[in-house]
Amino acid sequence: MNTNIFTYSLLRYVHSASSGEALNVGILFIFPEQKQVIFHAPQKLSRLSHTYQNFSEWLVKAHLKGIKQKVQQVSSDWNLFSDEILKDQRTFIAREFLLEDATALQFSDLRVGVLDTDDFNGLAKSYYELYFGDYEEQEQKEHQRNEKYISQKLYKNIIAKSKDVEQYLQKDIIVESPELTLKFEYAWQNLQKHLVKPLAFDLETEEGIQEKSARNFGYLTLLNQTAKDKNYTFDILVSRPSSRNLFASYDKALRVLESVPTSKKIIEEPQFDDYSGEIVGHIVRR
Prior knowledge:
Blueprint lengths: L4 E12 L4 E11 L4 E5 L5 H6 L5 H20 L1 H10 L1 H9 L7 E3 L3 E4 L5 H23 L4 H15 L8 E7 L4 E9 L3 E8 L5 H17 L1 H7 L1 E8 L7 H12 L5 E5 L3 H13 L2
Parallel strand pairs: 8-9, 9-10
Antiparallel strand pairs: 1-2, 1-4, 1-5, 2-3, 6-7, 7-8
Helix pairs in contact: 3-4, 6-10, 7-9
């Protein structure tokens, strides 16, 4: 009989006991042979805060912190807890790792695995990634400098300089040509009507950056005659990739946009503050 086994249990946030609706927020491991307990949980809980309007993030984080502290205590003083652990792990987990007021948090039934490696920490990490890999990926994507990020950053810069300017900013402008209909985030008037288009290149692949630049080259080119007829100019706000390996692809994308045969201006992220100042300056002087 293989005695080198371990057990693990998923920690779940149960939003509604009646519906059984729950999301995983952590995973607890017990390695009896190694006399260790390990607990992993996501750093951020935005999935829950986005899912449940009345979700108390600070309270759940406080409980997670308490679990991590208890895990360290049990691992450090294993012999003090070993009899209870070996006798009834389920009862031990419920009593030692969850406070009485943690009614929304529940550990799942115990699951058993065989430890076939000396690296039990690595195995625990692999299990965590198996259950929470998509969660971590979503968290990462939410922090990408996407179009929403660009739009919000520009808006905040403008309002910080002058709250009175907001009433002169048009939002969600639809521009049409015989071949195309395209929405622009903002518009403001100077000698020309400036149509503001965020374009995020904080993507994961060279092909994605290339495709996005080529697609928008086509869109803006098809609006060229409309821009001439109505005295439009396109202000394209761009964000670069997070990965340095994609900087060359980003530079190529900028050259593609620069070659669009119409009136336009490309504004990179370090220039957003100056550009918002330009908008405020022109509108205030009207």
